[in-house]
Structures are given as structure tokens and as C-alpha cells.
Design goal:
The protein has 652 residues and is of the alpha/beta class. The chain is 44% helix and 14% strand.
């Protein structure tokens, strides 16, 4: 019997488990350090602080994990110690817990590979949308090997516990009531301390984002995200009086073509155009999954994976300097439907009370358009059906069945099996969803009504699989292949659309939902918000490259201006082609809120913190600056007013 077993008696197995968890957690932390070796700070102070902060959070995590065991040891009478029941319960739950934790450590590695972060609200979402996630894992990783490896490691760790006498000592030792109560009291105090006084934010001590992320405990981060995925702006961020915030934003949004029609806390205005509007053109809008600007040859890529889009950039209204508002699809959807800065926490697409809002669909509906949303998977994912169906869009999706209620207020149409040539975890391939849209557009044309068709693609997503034989990169081998396939599918969309009688009277709009990656060592990786956008099929003399720095939220106000439409607006976006347009981009994560104006970047963080930087585009680095008060107040105003309007139901 080893010293650890003899010292802790009845609690020998628990202590072996705690030491095992702490050691394995630090091993994982060191692995992440080596993984990002060129981007983390290796300063000895930073290294030690990362490891010690991580150990602190691991200690809190294992206290939460161990609380049930401690309760069991407390209430189990000494006369039953070592009994058949005692052995069965301890063997079973110890084995199950070790298996779950080993699997969790593997999951952390795959999550880091995808997002370069510890578990966050995305992992919480993955726990809800099990069909897509399980299918994605099955198609992306050798699942039998993974599960086999987890089982093998679980057996190895349990065998080590056994060989060190942990089980034997636990089954042959008894603890006094005083000892049991003192252990229970100590464990409860530790869990209460971490539960009420320690937040995940305390791990974010470093300006190097990777050091801060590695300092965290993945399990602790998961439950922190589960608890805090919706954040009221004024409770977490620096604020100013609403009168001042709305005054600033109204000045920013004012122009000669708009008149505010409501007083107090509102940005609602009537926008008019001095030129008569064009006839109602059909609009096909394609929101492309994870299309980073860096994939295009137009922005320096040398792999030639977007030949069609690069050619389109030369014969369209092309936005060269446009930035996504966030890092997830639902954030992009929020930006392009509501034209609103990203509010803290979850996207509005996933929040309660997000129906009957004033969206771009409201503008199209006012002009008698038929509005539809097309998605190649099941639209219950990320609450898409409830959001789009609750805001005027008819739905076309796979409709494979959901454990959740979609609460669709419009018509939902299934994409049938006979319309599908290829499908993976996330949905049908891009060619298939485009073909479905073309089929519906043909029917819409026959009715004589103009149509607005919103298509969300899925192919540029892990496991990066697509129909074989379409491009020269084998399916499932890389993101570059998925990007090139999406580019191919878009080319096919245009080739087929050009044969349609409705093509000449149709404008195509293409934009990314977000970049393929948003990770970086700084608080915000600015370059990984840069996305392309195209407005296609206007008269050739209107084609141009727009160099002004702008945001996803500016896309539709710009297009409505090109149409010369008069319309009502609750939008924060503006017409980029207006001579008075002030260059800026609004972007963020679910906790960081950013205003960028040319090369100056203000970042608002929860805990009411702020930081000001200059951005070097050449090396994508941020250099700290002294806070500019007027810049800070403008940043606050964008986000405070957006959050106020939504939470007070003033966007309806």
C-alpha cells in the first residue's frame, strides 16, 4: 500500500482521482501551449501564471465534480463500508466519471482544433443540437478508434488506481463522523466560493488571448457559458445616459434623405430617395458559410480556390473592405436581417421574443415581395426556423424532425429526398440547395410577384465533404476543398439562372456569414472578420469596387439605395455609397464589443472594462493606446442603444 492510500484511508480513491484530474488537466494545458507555441507568451512569469491560474480553476472544477462522492462517503454508514453495495456503487461511478472526463479531454482537443478556445457557448449549443453534432463527429473522426481509445485509457487509469491500493484502502478503511463532516464542510465551502465569487473572467488576465484561454478549465468554462449566454448591456459594460447615447447615434445615422419619425429612444426613420425607384427586382441572397476574405485571390490567396468569385469581383459591386459583426452563422444572420450591431451574449436569432421584428423582410413585404428562407439542414438548428418563420419568411429545409418547437408562423416546406444528391451532417450540398431555390423561383415567377429568396449554404463546414468529381480536391480532405466546391456551386447557380426568364430582372447578393476562423493572440483578431460581399447583375456601368471600410449591417441599406427605394428603417446600417458615409466597422464575440474606425480599435469587455488600440493591417497586430473619450462614448452608444432597443421590444 502506498503512502497516499494509507494517509487518506476511506478517501484514498477520491484523492487519487483528484490528483489524477489535476495532473491530466495540466498535461492538457501544456499541450495547448505547445500547440500554439509561436503565438503564446513564453515569458517565464506569463508561463507560470498561466499554469498556476489553470491549476486554481482545475481545483475548483474537481471540487464540483467530487461533491457527489463526498456526500456519498458522508452518508454511507461505516458498517456498510466494503460491502457488495459499496463496492458496486464506487466501482461503477468512478469508472463512469473517469470515462466521461477522458472523453471530455479528447473533446477539448477537437474543440481547440476548430475554434482555438476552451469550451464556450458554442459547446453549450452543441449539447442541444445533438443530431448535427453527433453526425459531424461520425463523419469527421474515426469514432470507433476514438471510443476505443477512451475506453482503453479509462481502463489504464483505473488499473493504476487499483495497483496503488486506492480501491482496497477505500473499501477497508472507515472514517469518523467528525472526519466525514469536516470533509463535507470543506468541499461545500470550496464549491460555494467558486460558485459565487469566482467567474471565468478571472482567468482572462493576459493581453495574449491564448494565455488567457489556456489558463481556463474547459469544464468550468462550459458551465460558465451555460449560465451567462445572455448578458444585459448595462449590467456588464460601461454605459452612459441613454439620452446621450441615442443623441450620438441619431447624429451618426442622420443624413439628408432620412427623417426621424419617433421621439425619445428610437432610431426609426423614413428614408426617401430623390430619384424614382426602379421596378421591383427579384433578389437572390446567398449567405455563404465561413467565406473568409483571405480565401480569395483578390485579397492575396495564391491557391486559386475561388476562381469564380474572383472573376465576379471584377464584374459586380464588390465590397473590398467589409467586416463581419461576429464569428458565428447566427451572428451573420442577425447582421444581415436586422442591420444591427452585435448585442452581448447570444445572437438575437437565438433569443426569446425575437419574432415580429422590423427586418429587411419587412421592407420587402411592404413592396409585396414573396420572401423565403432556404437551408439545407434542419432549420431547428440554431433556432433558425423560429426566427425566420417568426419574421415573415416561408421556410424551405430538410425537416428531419426536431425535439424542439420551431414555433413557425409562416409556411414550412420540406426539401424531399428525391431533390438531394449529396448530404452530410449539416445538410445537403450547395448545388442541391441552389437547385431547390431555382425550382421555387421558377414557380414564383409564374405568379407575377417579385421574390426575395434567402439561401444559407452549408458545404464549407467540417467534415468538408461534397459530391465527388466536381473539383480537383478530394471530398473531406480540407477546408480549401470545401471552399473550392462552394465556389463551383455558385458558378453553377449563375450558369443555370442565366437560362431563366426571370434572370435579367434579378439581383444576386453574396456575402459571408463570418470568417472560417476568428482565433488570434489579441483580444480581437481583426483580419479574421474581413469578408467579401458582392452585388451582382446591375447594369455594367454601375459595377465598382467599394474601398470604404464598412460592416455587414451596411449591405442592405446600400442595396436599397441602389434601388432608389423609399422605406421605413430601424436599421443601424447606412448606405456606403453616400458621400457622407463615415467609415467604421462593428464587430465582436459574445463578450467583446468592438468599434473600428480605419486603424483605431476600441474594445468593450464585460466587467465594464475597455481598451483602445491602433491596428497594423500588415501584421494584424494591436498596439495599446491611451483611451480616447469621444471614441469610447461613440463605441458605447452603438452597443448600448442596440441592446436597449431589442430588450425593450422597440425593434418591432
Amino acid at each position: 500500500m502506498n503512502k497516499l492510500s494509507s494517509k487518506y484511508g476511506r478517501y484514498s480513491l477520491l484523492m487519487h482521482f483528484i490528483f489524477w484530474f489535476l495532473i491530466l488537466s495540466q498535461f492538457l494545458r501544456i499541450s495547448f501551449f505547445l500547440w500554439q507555441y509561436s503565438e503564446v507568451s513564453w515569458n517565464i512569469i506569463d508561463l507560470l501564471r498561466t499554469l498556476l491560474t489553470g491549476l486554481f480553476f482545475d481545483f475548483g472544477t474537481v471540487a464540483f465534480i467530487s461533491i457527489c462522492s463526498v456526500l456519498y462517503y458522508t452518508v454511507m454508514p461505516n458498517k456498510w463500508v466494503g460491502s457488495f453495495l459499496d463496492k458496486i456503487l464506487i466501482y461503477f461511478f468512478t469508472s463512469l466519471t473517469v470515462f466521461i472526463l477522458v472523453f471530455t479531454f479528447f473533446a477539448e482537443l477537437t474543440f481547440w482544433d476548430e475554434f482555438k478556445t476552451r469550451f464556450n457557448f458554442i459547446a453549450v449549443d452543441y449539447l442541444i443540437y445533438t443530431h448535427e453534432v453527433v453526425a459531424n463527429i461520425q463523419q469527421s473522426y474515426p469514432l470507433p478508434v476514438l471510443i476505443g481509445g477512451v475506453l482503453l485509457l479509462t481502463f489504464v487509469f483505473l488499473f493504476i488506481f487499483y495497483k496503488r491500493g486506492a480501491f482496497t484502502t477505500t473499501f477497508t478503511s472507515k472514517a469518523s463522523l467528525k472526519t466525514r463532516l469536516s470533509v463535507l464542510f470543506s468541499t461545500i465551502c470550496i464549491t460555494l466560493f467558486f460558485g459565487f465569487f469566482i467567474t471565468n473572467n478571472h482567468a482572462e488576465w493576459s493581453q495574449n488571448r491564448y494565455n488567457s484561454e489556456i489558463s481556463k478549465s474547459g469544464i468550468y468554462s462550459f458551465f460558465a457559458a451555460f449560465r451567462n449566454n445572455q448578458m444585459k448591456y448595462v449590467d456588464f459594460y460601461t454605459s452612459i445616459p441613454n439620452d446621450k447615447a441615442f443623441g450620438l447615434i441619431k447624429k451618426k445615422l442622420a443624413d439628408p434623405n432620412s427623417i426621424y419619425t419617433r421621439k425619445d429612444y428610437s432610431i426609426h426613420r423614413k428614408i426617401t430617395d430623390s430619384i424614382p425607384s426602379l421596378e421591383n427586382k427579384n433578389v437572390v441572397f446567398v449567405l455563404v458559410e465561413s467565406l473568409s476574405g483571405s480565401f480569395l485571390k483578390e485579397f492575396g490567396n495564391k491557391e486559386n480556390i475561388t476562381p469564380f468569385l474572383d472573376s465576379l469581383a471584377q464584374k459586380s459591386i464588390f465590397f473590398e473592405n467589409l467586416y463581419a459583426t461576429g464569428t458565428r452563422t447566427v451572428r451573420g444572420m442577425e447582421a444581415v436581417t436586422l442591420c444591427i450591431p452585435p448585442t452581448p451574449g447570444q445572437s438575437i436569432v437565438k433569443r426569446p421574443d425575437n419574432q415580429n421584428l422590423y427586418t429587411i423582410c419587412s421592407v420587402f413585404k411592404s413592396r409585396k415581395y414573396d420572401c423565403n428562407f432556404f437551408y439545407g439542414g434542419d432549420g431547428y438548428f440554431d433556432n433558425m426556423n423560429a426566427y425566420f418563420g417568426g419574421n415573415g419568411f416561408n421556410i424551405y429545409d430538410r425537416g428531419r424532425g426536431s425535439v424542439l418547437s420551431d414555433e413557425i408562423k409562416t409556411v414550412r416546406n420540406n426539401i424531399n429526398d428525391n431533390e438531394v444528391t449529396f448530404e452530410n451532417a449539416w445538410g445537403i450540398c450547395d448545388e442541391d440547395i441552389f437547385n431547390k431555390m431555382l425550382k421555387v423561383a421558377d414557380s414564383q415567377y409564374k405568379t407575377g410577384k417579385p421574390f426575395f429568396n434567402f439561401v444559407m449554404t452549408t458545404s464549407n463546414h467540417r467534415p468538408f465533404t461534397y459530391p465527388p468529381g466536381k473539383i480537383d480536391i478530394p471530398s473531406g480532405t480540407s477546408r480549401e476543398g470545401a471552399v473550392k466546391y462552394t465556389d463551383f456551386a455558385l458558378k453553377e447557380l449563375f450558369r443555370k439562372a442565366q437560362t431563366k426568364p426571370w434572370f435579367k430582372n434579378t439581383v444576386f447578393v453574396i456575402i459571408a456569414d463570418h470568417c472560417a476562423s476568428s482565433a488570434g493572440k489579441d483580444e480581437i483578431d481583426v483580419a479574421n472578420y474581413h469578408i467579401p460581399a458582392f452585388i451582382v447583375n446591375f447594369p455594367e456601368n454601375q459595377n465598382q469596387k467599394i474601398a470604404q471600410q464598412c460592416s455587414q449591417i451596411d449591405l442592405w441599406p446600400t442595396l436599397f439605395s441602389l434601388f432608389h427605394w423609399d422605406y421605413e428603417s430601424d436599421f443601424f446600417g447606412k448606405n456606403v455609397l453616400d458621400s457622407q458615409f463615415e467609415q467604421r466597422a462593428l464587430m465582436g464575440t459574445y463578450r467583446k464589443l468592438v468599434l473600428m474606425k480605419k486603424d483605431k480599435v476600441m474594445i468593450l469587455s464585460d466587467q465594464k472594462k475597455q481598451a483602445f488600440y491602433s491596428w497594423n493591417k500588415e501584421d494584424n497586430s494591436l498596439k495599446s493606446l491611451q483611451i480616447d473619450q469621444s471614441f469610447l462614448e461613440e463605441t458605447i452608444s452603438w452597443y448600448q442603444t442596440a441592446d436597449f432597443l431589442f430588450t425593450n421590444k422597440l425593434l418591432q
